[in-house]
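Priority: low. Protein: Sugar MFS transporter. Input follows.
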Amino acid sequence: MTSVSIPEKPIQKKSAINPIIIIGALFFIFGFVTWLNSVLIPYLKIACQLNNFESYLVTSAFYIAYLLMAKPSAWVLKLCGFKNGMAVGLVVIALGALIFIPAALTRVYSVFLVGLFVQGTGLAILQSASNPYITIIGPPEGAAKRMSIMGIFNKCAGVLAPIALGALVLANIDSFNATLLKLDAAQKVIALNGLASRVILPYVIIVVVLAVLAVLIYFSGLPEIDTEHEDEAVAAANSGKDSIFQFPHLILGVLALFFYVGAEVIAGDSIIGYGTASHIPLSTAKYFASGTLICMVIGYFAGILFIPRYISQQKALVYSAILGVVLTGLALVTPIYVSIGCIALLGLANALMWPAIWPLALSGLGRFTKIGSSLLVMGIAGAAVFPPLYGLLVDKLSAQEAYMMLIPIYLFILYFSTIGYKKGKHVIAV
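Result:
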């Protein structure tokens, strides 16, 4: 079986647990920061008086950094190594969170978007380091299981993030909206400035936490992994290869990740807006994103229990893609509360896609692992493309009908999980 390379020097026994705990903490952090966007979209829509398309530029500004900064992220890792690269990523995220303070004080949407781009840049570095690290740190057939454990940290943070931020910035938001309609222009500006200022305290706390974690990571005993070493089988398979583009299964994996992240972010970040568009009070709808994330946590637990003991990570990806198509189809034709439930359940369909795509795409890369990882991180930019397209469809059609765009996304992932992951190499399912 072709696989990603294993470190030439095994991790010392005293460090065997610590790497999982440390990387788990990092997955919690970037899960928390990422899923704040589900609240920022409706919050900034009100505070900055935006339409649906404009409000979903939150995801574009955040995730486009993964495309633009993935290559520099690879350079950072090559220069600093995995551990120090993680510390650098945390510092950059903290700088992005810090930008939210002048953004809130001026209530200028473009400044918020700059802050989100800088946060995305830090996360690109962090993801480029942490995802291949957890993939390579143990046997390749158990990579999806380890990624599922990381996913629980990530999505538990995602459950908490919209609840915590929503409680602070969307408190009494329905009565605020009702009052806003009765105010004259000058009073409206004052009220909106007050709403914008609500975001300052939580982001100051985020800055402090990230700075402390960066110091802790820098001085931690996290071991470095040698991705330049290739075992004999991988070296033989890669003989004569001098470009990452000679691995077609990786390129298809990048595309699969591009589509998957777009679908995941639509399911998590649009569900609040879907509820309010269906005349459900925002004070109630603000909890819907946590429902999607709870379903993802359930999916990750299933991955831990069943992969690879009862099902391969490749088969898990097949079944997840099929479930995504079925749930999307039901969401398009069922009554509103059932439809919202189907969108929340997409969290279950999406849960095992990330853990499965990474090891399938990185399989057999050997010395090309770091650059392959940076390309996969670039695939996260799918979240910069698809949510605004969803917002545009909402403005043209309806919040429910716009979900039809998810069906071709899941069909491509189904293609990768059945055929695409084998392109250019002879493998069995891992």
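The chain has one domain: 13-221+243-422. The radius of gyration is 21 Å.
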